[in-house]
Each structure stands twice: as structure tokens, then as C-alpha cells.
Amino acid sequence: MKMATREWIRRKVPPPVFQLAQSCWWHSRFYIPHLIASCVVRRNPKVQVFPAGRHLGITEQLCSVNVFAPTEMCRTMTKHGSDKGQGWHNYTTVYFALFNELRRRPLQIFELGLGTNNPNHAFSMGSNGRPGASLRGWRELFPQALVYGADIDRGVLFEEDRIKTFYCDQLDKGAIRQLWAQPVLQGGMDLIIDDGLHTFEGNISFLDGSLEQLRPGGIYVVEDIFRQTIQRWYHRLETVYARQFPYHEFAFVELPNSANKDDNNLVIIRRRQ
Ligand SMILES: C[S@@+](CC[C@H](N)C(=O)[O-])C[C@H]1O[C@@H](n2cnc3c(N)ncnc32)[C@H](O)[C@@H]1O
Fold first, then answer.
1. Spacing, Cα 34 to ligand 1 middle (Å)
2. How far apart are CA 11 and CA 193, in angstroms?
3. Using a 6 Å cutoff on CB, does residue 133 contact ligand 1?
4. How far apart are CA 40 and CA 59, in angstroms?
5. Does the C-beta of 27 come closer than 6 Å to ligand 1?
6. Which fold has domain 43-271?
7. What is the pTM of this model?
8. Distance CA 31, CA 71 (A)
9. How far does Cα 44 stand from its chain's mean position?
10. CA–CA separation, 114 vs 131, rounded Å?
11. To test the ligand 1 pocket, which listed residue (79, 111, 124, 203) has its Cβ within 8 A of the most ligand atoms?
12. What's CA 266's distance to the chain center, in Å?
């Protein structure tokens, strides 16, 4: 849908009607055509693991994902207003492969970046964004999990059944320490997703202060990595993290997508059991 038309409709109709129209449009233009075409079309991610050349368990799991084939996780996240699998990004195809078998477990899930509408914050989602969309998506996908989140914008913090959120500026090491000192966050996380400030410095700052929070078997994901920073990530993963954390598997994953050649990239880290 063209932006101007979308904005016009959004202002004219009540939010539930707008969301229903968006959902019908997405299913007919993206989900169903891709589902059918994926019977014959395959698009596998490019995966680089660290330490380079080592055979890691996560490699085959990631390489075998067809990022062209939408999954149930794409539908659930899109329904809540998240962009993790709506077409511009295809992360929920990879997440389905990694997380589907864990869905009934009482996990601790944390996502940085709730999604602000305030244009004064970096990586604001604009007026159409729904703050907390992905946290609500995780809650639905993992019915036994506790879901936590954090953001620099105090205006979007909220608390609901099985969801609790906190302030954090990921560029501030003290704020990251204070976040992980929160009583309810003790004991570590099974899943940590960084979808906050999409800069190399912001990602590294949060990773440095948070990787130790990952439980054995847990997975840490950095989303929306810009193409221009891929070489910096390769260097950092090989020379710093893979050496400092020998019990973790590190992968840089480029998801092919003809619509998005900019930031459809992930860093995925698994701590071994
Ligand atoms: C793309 S939005 C997150 C979308 C959300 N994760 C979702 O999927 O629904 C990015 C968020 O990062 C937050 N952010 C920007 N700079 C930040 C920082 N320095 N520390 C923490 N969060 C930050 C913004 O306020 C915004 O809410």
C-alpha cells in the first residue's frame, strides 16, 4: 500500500478496522503468494560462523532455513504490528527454525527496543508503529514464558500479564548494569533480542554488558545490522567474542531478500548447554 493512501485510511477508520484491513492486505499480497511459491522457490541465508572454519551445531540449522517461506511466527508477529517477518525483514523464518521446539517451555525472554512513536528518538517507528508489538508477539508464541523489554523512551514502558519493561539506554554501561540488577531479571535469559539502536557501537555496548546474562542453551540475537558494518562484525566476532567465550557459537546471518538489501542481517549467538 502506498504510504499516503495508508495514512489517509488510518486517519479515516477506527484502529481495529484499519488493523483488519492491513492484515487482509498482507495475507493476500505477501503471506499466501509466498507460501504457495515457496513450494518451488528456495532462498537460503548466507551464514558465516566464528571461530571461522569450525563446524558448529548452529551452522546446518541456519543454512537449511528457506527464508522465502513464511511461517506461523511471521503471521503472529505481523498480527501484533511487529516488522520481524512482514516482508521487509524475514527473521521469523529463522526464529521458527531455532525456537519452535522451545515454545512450550517456561522461558525468560528479553527484547531491547519496544518501538516508540516519538520522532525525537533514534529508530522511531513513526506514527504507524505499535509500541510493544514484538513483546506481545513473543507472549502469544511462548504461552509459558515471561517476557521482558527495555527502551530509552520512558513514555513507551508498560506492564501487562507476563510482560514487564524497564528503562535502558544501551549506550550507557551504567544503565545496562542497573537493568540487569533488577530483582525480576535475576537468573538469566533464554532469549535476548537487541532491536534497539541499530548502530555498531550501540549493539556492541549492549552485547558487552549482556552476553553473560544468557543461560546455557540460550540464544542472543542482534537484529537489523546494516550491510556497511558487516566487516566490522566479522572482525569483532573472530578476534574478540569467539576467543573470550569458547562455550558460545557465533554466526553472522545474511537473509536474501530482493526488497531489502540494507539491513536484513542478524548476529546469532548460542551458548552451549
Ligand atoms: C525499531 S524500534 C523497536 C521495535 C520493537 N522491537 C518491535 O519489534 O516491536 C527501536 C527502538 O529502539 C529504541 N532506542 C533507540 N535508541 C536507544 C538506546 N540508546 N537505548 C535503548 N533503546 C533505544 C527506540 O526508542 C525504539 O523504540
1. 29
2. 32
3. yes
4. 23
5. no
6. Rossmann fold (3.40.50)
7. 0.95
8. 9
9. 18
10. 6
11. 124
12. 8
